[in-house]
Design goal:
Layout (H helix, E strand, L loop, with lengths): L6 H8 L3 E2 L2 H8 L11 E3 L4 H14 L3 E4 L15 E4 L6 E5 L5 E3 L6 H14 L9 E5 L4 H8 L4 E2 L12 H7 L6 H4 L2 H4 E8 L4 E5 L32 E9 L1 E2 L3 E9 L2 H15 L3 E8 H11 L14 E9 L6 H12 L8 E2 L2 H9 L1 H12 E10 L2 H18 L5 E5 L5 E9 L8 H14 L15 H7 L2 H14 L12 H5 L2
Parallel strand pairs: 2-4, 3-4
Antiparallel strand pairs: 1-2, 5-6, 5-7, 7-11, 8-12, 9-10, 9-11, 13-15, 13-16, 14-15, 14-18, 17-19, 18-19
Helix pairs in contact: 4-5, 9-14, 10-13, 14-15
Amino acid sequence: MTAAVDSATLTRLLGAHCTVDPDRLKRYEIPERGEPGKASGLVVPQSEAEVGQLLATCSANGIALVISAGRTGLVEAQRPDGECVMSLEKLDQPLSFTAPDGEIFRFADAASPEAAADALGAWWRGLGQPPCHDGVLEVQAGMAVDAVNLILGALGLMWPMEMGSSSAASVGGCIANASAGANAVCYGTAAHLAIQAFGFSGDGREMVSDAPAWKAVPGDMLAINSAQPRPEWGLIGTQGVLGVITRASLRAYAIPVQREAALIPVADMPAAMRILAAAQALFGDDVEEFEFIGRPALELVRELKGEAFRSPLARHDAPYYLLLQVKSHKAHVDLAGKLYEFLADDVGLAEDDIGYAPLKALKEIRHSITEASNARMRKLGGGRLSFDTATPVAMFGDYLKVLEQELSAEFPDAALIAFGHAGVGGAHLHILGSKESPASVHASALTRILFDVTQDFGGTFSAEHGVGSKWGSEFIARAPKDVQAALVAAKRRHDPNTVLSPRNFALDRLLRG
């Protein structure tokens, strides 16, 4: 079990890349959400091998660790509470690209993403520009998602992990969390976008984990559920409690030849989900995104952007809006015409209710919601409750309708800001407080209502952002006992001294029985 270790012992055991300097620690003590933590130290390994050595040392000496990469997580998994922080920021390099025919390109050491993209593109052109979709990119775990796509873009390829924080979110963090993102309806989660993950167990042993293949999930089943980790996946989807991912091989996909999207108003979320069913019946796997935005969320973006706000719709009085994006790998297909006919004829939308705009402009609206919510929260001064839930797609529309009713009945002044990944039944939910009525005052009651309704609809209190320490008590209270038991057993196998993220999933409490 872990024990307190004094600063001198910590730096002696963990070596030259460890510091206890308070000024250095501050950056790693402030999470994306929640209160600042307190770190006993910081260690920044310079290589994958060093990660394994450090884990073995920490396990042998009872030094507890939390892992820091992009630090974009929302469940306080990276917030230290007396633990030492291990940052993977130096493990940020591309390693190799393997073409479908077996040809391998190896990247130069310490190359910038731009230089790596140029070198890969030159190699590919030297081969005669062969088709490279289904190629494999191997990268270190601390590499940012945007950097991966900058490199793959040189070959007309992508790693379709789309999220608002992709400039900072790390590949390893996304795979460890099985993050969903906007494209999950088409490509699956980050767990499915990997091929293998490599790293080390909590006690420093090498681990290799094979990723699950993506298969479309039936509408009556949960598509995303980070409250039900799969220990048999090893490092993948288990949120860093069994080991640390240091490297991953990624599936590369061809960038579609065409993409078309529209912002469309709907009267309610049950109607929205009927549009999803119709779109999938017509476009099949070419429905690449199906996002929803509640009117309060759209209004926050309008408030944030001011005169710079650009919307393709003349009216903004619908309760909800959908961002429907479709793709095609065929240049000769009239994709824009097909989407327009679907919305006009099949859905029955009037011309003014079909919000065509450049894809970048539509994405900016969707990806500005969290920033807009942050700005409004600061202005109101009453904090915020943030949730990440999911239900089966077949129940998602009715779920949001009932949730709004239940919250309004108990707390008529609580404004629900809802948006997210309707294509996989995922919702991001914000409730803002004010100086007069801080969100924290009714936090327990609001959380209970929200999670109880979610559970009634066969849903999960944690869809894609993980459980972390924030929702540890909910994991104990709501996760099936067999799921808890399997995770505890895996923790004992891979991290017998409980040094790695000991508070995530409330494992410290579960291990105490």
